[in-house]
Amino acid sequence: MRILLVEDEARLAGLVRRGLDEEGHAVDLAGSAEEALDWLAAAGAEYDAIVLDVMLPGRDGLDLCRHLRQTRVSTPILLLTARDAVADRVAGLDAGADDYLVKPFAFAELSARLRALARRPAETLGVALEAADLRLDPATRRVWRAGQDVSLGNKEFRILEVLLRHPNQVLTRAAIAEHVWDYDFPSATNVIDVHVRALRRKLDDPYPGKLIQTVRGVGYRLSTGES
């Protein structure tokens, strides 16, 4: 996932960002509501989830959450707060948040809640993502081709997940990068091509039927074999 983390406490922000990075997520960090709005307004800054601290300097997280919903930003929002009273949780949910986590929290729980939020838009497709004989489970981070387990690195997994969420659609390298890397991704390099070649060696070469297609001069497409 590409995640916007809005947290002004530097130590906590660093720990959460490091943990999410290690899980293969792309994380952009904002220390205030104004900085978060700048990230959201940036060209191509599309997020799969927003982790939002309630107690921010200046404009607080609840006000930012309400603003985002009023301006029709539908990205799932997970609120972080030190307040654990029922009234505080209700206020957060009423502001438009999708979930609520009280500090201090275990990183494993934060990670699990983000996975749950990421599955919500795809519920009509089931938890797992599928194309032909390829199957990916975002919750367990497992991949199968023709019923056989395939081991992927973090970036390979994320690129495949992005392609599977947009079957038969041509995705540019820039579009793939926006969901897999953070804002500092070195777009001039061929790093995406390198990862796609690795995916093909693992997912296409050993099996009949080539699912990952190159669209010359544009990007890549994952074919379901139905179009």
From TrEMBL:
<feature type="domain" description="OmpR/PhoB-type">
    <location>
        <begin position="126"/>
        <end position="224"/>
    </location>
</feature>
<keyword id="KW-0804">Transcription</keyword>
<protein>
    <recommendedName>
        <fullName>Two-component transcriptional response regulator, LuxR family</fullName>
    </recommendedName>
</protein>
<dbReference type="GO" id="GO:0032993">
    <property type="term" value="C:protein-DNA complex"/>
</dbReference>
<feature type="modified residue" description="4-aspartylphosphate">
    <location>
        <position position="53"/>
    </location>
</feature>
<keyword id="KW-0805">Transcription regulation</keyword>
<feature type="domain" description="Response regulatory">
    <location>
        <begin position="2"/>
        <end position="118"/>
    </location>
</feature>
<dbReference type="InterPro" id="IPR001867">
    <property type="entry name" value="OmpR/PhoB-type_DNA-bd"/>
</dbReference>
<feature type="DNA-binding region" description="OmpR/PhoB-type">
    <location>
        <begin position="126"/>
        <end position="224"/>
    </location>
</feature>
<dbReference type="GO" id="GO:0000156">
    <property type="term" value="F:phosphorelay response regulator activity"/>
</dbReference>
<dbReference type="InterPro" id="IPR036388">
    <property type="entry name" value="WH-like_DNA-bd_sf"/>
</dbReference>
<dbReference type="InterPro" id="IPR001789">
    <property type="entry name" value="Sig_transdc_resp-reg_receiver"/>
</dbReference>
<dbReference type="InterPro" id="IPR039420">
    <property type="entry name" value="WalR-like"/>
</dbReference>
<dbReference type="InterPro" id="IPR011006">
    <property type="entry name" value="CheY-like_superfamily"/>
</dbReference>
<keyword id="KW-0238">DNA-binding</keyword>
<dbReference type="Pfam" id="PF00072">
    <property type="entry name" value="Response_reg"/>
</dbReference>
<dbReference type="GO" id="GO:0000976">
    <property type="term" value="F:transcription cis-regulatory region binding"/>
</dbReference>
<dbReference type="GO" id="GO:0005829">
    <property type="term" value="C:cytosol"/>
</dbReference>
<dbReference type="GO" id="GO:0006355">
    <property type="term" value="P:regulation of DNA-templated transcription"/>
</dbReference>
<dbReference type="Pfam" id="PF00486">
    <property type="entry name" value="Trans_reg_C"/>
</dbReference>
<keyword id="KW-0597">Phosphoprotein</keyword>
<keyword id="KW-0902">Two-component regulatory system</keyword>
